[in-house]
Specification:
The chain has 338 residues and is an alpha+beta fold. The protein contains seven helices and 17 strands. The chain folds into two domains: 147 residues, Aminotransferase class 4, branched-chain amino acid transferase, N-terminal domain (D-amino Acid Aminotransferase, Chain A, domain 1), CATH 3.30.470.10; 163 residues, D-amino Acid Aminotransferase, subunit A, domain 2 (D-amino Acid Aminotransferase, Chain A, domain 2), CATH 3.20.10.10. The radius of gyration is 20 Å and the shape is globular. The protein binds pyridoxal-5'-phosphate.
């Protein structure tokens, strides 16, 4: 094994072991670790025809004292259960999800990067319809799978603010699937993100599709805003994916930093009033946003394009401090893998 942890990006690197369990005849089998990275499916598998698939994303990493841990994996297990139910897929039991995480990380422990590198072992649990489906209906058989791939630190050379644009495309319909982690939500975002990149933007800000007046989220991260009087405001909508990072940041803001937190609908027209803006998700924890481009108009946050805003920075440092074991964590947030 020859990995330069510091130069790792966010790409797939095959690791020796993955966890697999199949759902057949109405029940999950015992599941096991395997070295076989290939999935062999019928050409008519439900996932290939009608995109019946859901996934999760979390990280295993080393703490300063050498422990290997994951961050709130129980919330990933619960969210995957919610996602599965919405797509008429069987739920992979939450206890078994945690077991699969522990087993896969332990089996690939040589690929958990050293603490100092800032790199981590990204975990991708996912589930898909594996049996043949041609008339539109849910598959009868499914596979749950979990693989691990080492990824580099998200911010190399400092946290730099990004520029995003208000998208003309919508991400999720009202009463649709925006609140679950389904591959289909990403398939339809590919065109919008390629177009954003071609036009020099880092991300898309999606509006609520019904009225196009409220802020929802980006393709893969929730928003947090900081008001000029240091409140944390985060958009509320039934079609936003409930980010575990965002929920953790709101807790940290309130309980560790003593900030007021508001979870409420946020109008696009009030965004220019905020002092700071950030995108939150597992990959970056928080990416500060310096500028939002909206059809010829620019919203430039006072925090600027050089550094993260002061509160954003504090939130980032506190949550990553908790994750790294440098700041005491709330009960149940850190799961050690033995
Ligand atoms: C995964 C995801 C997020 C971030 O969720 P975390 O649990 O914080 O990683 C945000 N938005 C969308 C659409 C996502 O798929």
């Amino acid at each position: 094994m020859d990995i330069n942890w510091k130069n790792l990006g966010f790409g797939y690197i095959k690791t020796p072991y993955r966890y697999v369990s199949d759902f057949k005849d109405g029940k999950w089998d015992d599941g096991k670790l395997t070295q076989d990275d290939k999935v062999v499916l019928s050409e008519c598998a439900g996932v290939l025809q009608y995109s019946q698939s859901v996934f999760e994303g979390l990280k295993a990493y080393r703490t300063k004292d050498g422990k290997i841990v994951t961050f709130r994996p129980d919330l990933n297990a619960a969210r995957m259960a919610d996602s599965a139910k919405r797509l008429e897929m069987p739920v992979f039991p939450e206890e078994r999800f945690l077991e699969a995480v522990d087993m896969t990380v332990a089996a690939n422990k040589d690929y958990v990067p050293p603490f100092e590198s800032g790199a981590s072992l990204y975990l991708r649990p996912f589930m898909f319809g594996s049996s043949e489906v041609i008339g539109v209906k849910p598959a009868t058989n499914y596979q749950f799978r979990l693989f691990a791939t080492p990824v580099g630190p998200y911010f190399k050379g400092g946290i730099k603010p990004i520029t995003i644009r208000v998208s003309d495309f919508d991400r999720a319909a009202p009463r649709g699937t925006g609140h679950i982690k389904a591959g289909l939500n990403y398939a339809m975002s590919m065109h919008a993100i390629v177009d954003a990149h071609n036009n020099g933007f880092d991300e898309n800000l999606y509006l609520d599709p019904a009225t196009r007046t409220y802020v929802e989220e980006t393709g893969g991260a929730n928003f947090i805003f900081i008001t000029k009087d240091s409140k944390l405001v985060t958009p509320k909508s039934d079609s936003i994916l409930p980010s575990i990072t965002r929920r953790s940041l709101c807790y940290v803001a309130e309980k560790y930093l003593g900030l007021t937190v508001e979870h409420r609908p946020v109008k696009l027209e009030e965004v220019a009033e905020f002092a700071e803006c950030g995108l939150c998700g597992t990959a970056a924890v928080i990416s500060p946003v310096g500028k939002i481009y909206d059809h010829g108009k620019e919203i430039c946050f006072p925090s600027g394009m050089e550094n993260a805003g002061k509160i954003t920075r504090k939130l980032y440092d506190t949550l990553t401090g908790i994750q790294k074991g440098e700041i005491p964590a709330p009960d149940g947030w850190i799961r050690e893998i033995k």
